[in-house]
Amino acid sequence: MSSSYLSIEGVSIEFPTPNGPFKALDSVDLKINKGEFISLIGHSGCGKSTVLNIVAGLYQATDGGVILDGKEVDEPGPERAVVFQNHSLLPWLTAYQNVELAVKTVFKKTMSKAEMRDWIEHHLKLVHMDHAMHKRPDEISGGMKQRVGIARALAMQPKVLLMDEPFGALDALTRAHLQDSLMEIQNELNNTVIMITHDVDEAVLLSDRIVMMTNGPEATVGQILDIDLPRPRERLALADDPTYNHYRAEVLRFLHERHAKPDVPMDTPSADEAEQAKSEQAAKPELKLATATKDEPQVVNG
Ligand SMILES: Nc1ncnc2c1ncn2[C@@H]1O[C@H](COP(=O)(O)OP(=O)(O)OP(=O)(O)O)[C@@H](O)[C@H]1O
């Protein structure tokens, strides 16, 4: 048995379709240590959500499997909390009650009512939502809803946090603010996280490793990039950091040029393609965040 905390071992999956079986993933292998923050990045439709759904226990692999903390994953469970792009809060419950529902399923037998209340409030505070905990989802912004979704997941004290484009539906500034919050929380709690993202900067800023997937069908792990940047990380300081920009360019290069299966010979990057990756990097707008309000961040043009 593997000694990693979370081990994805030889995972393949075939979906039945009217045109016959569709093999979305082929032999995905990934070993994750406790407390690691992993981003999954790859072209649309390559199979990132499928990997996450298999780890969540929502899909069953056709071959291979997932082992978490020595136990094989074969169904969904509270030790693997999922945060989706579209904050899946129950609309008739307040932020507090949404978190409470999850906390009750995990801690009903082990916590008193007072302990549960403190626990819920602590997690809402962690995501800076304590001021609006008695509001319903239709009374708060998208960014605030996503904060509640993260609080709900964290309050379950999961062994692994699975995030499927958690900030994908948010505007750039709200997204930046939530990324900063997530880094702070990660610093404090040291969660094991797998996050899907399409955002190269988000991946480099937050991750210990970036797992880049090849295009499907039969997608697999194409390349893994170690992000050796000290923490805590500060986005504005990193904007001019050559190491940060090197990692960023590596991911862009993979997405632009090296997205075929690993056993397929790669083309040598053309001068044009390298130039394109470089100019995309240069064209990136630099954002500065002023002091955040209790709701959402304020903007100062940089
Ligand atoms: N239940 C299913 N039945 C049939 N095909 C599926 C099913 N789920 C996923 N697929 C197919 O598997 C492939 C991978 O899908 P998946 O949603 O995992 O990709 P993704 O990388 O997360 O995409 P995106 O970045 O666009 O969200 C796609 O071709 C998709 O159509």
From TrEMBL:
Keywords assigned by UniProt, alphabetized: ATP-binding, Cell membrane, Membrane, Nucleotide-binding, Transport
Record field: transmembrane: none
Region Disordered, annotated ranges: 259-302
Protein name, as recorded: ABC transporter ATP-binding protein
Record InterPro entries: AAA+_ATPase (IPR003593), ABC_transporter-like_ATP-bd (IPR003439), ABC_transporter-like_CS (IPR017871), ABC_transporter_ATP-bind (IPR050166), NO3_transporter_ATP-bd-like (IPR005890), P-loop_NTPase (IPR027417)
Domain of life: Bacteria
Chain ranges of the ABC transporter domain: 6-240
Main location: membrane
Gene Ontology molecular function terms on file: ATP binding; ATP hydrolysis activity; nitrate transmembrane transporter activity
Protein location: Cell membrane
Alphabetical list of PROSITE patterns matching this protein: ABC_TRANSPORTER_1 (PS00211), ABC_TRANSPORTER_2 (PS50893)
Membrane disposition: Peripheral membrane protein
Family the UniProt entry places it in: Belongs to the ABC transporter superfamily.
Organism: Corallincola holothuriorum
Short name of one Pfam family: ABC_tran
GO cellular component, one term: plasma membrane
Basic and acidic residues bias (residue ranges): 275-302
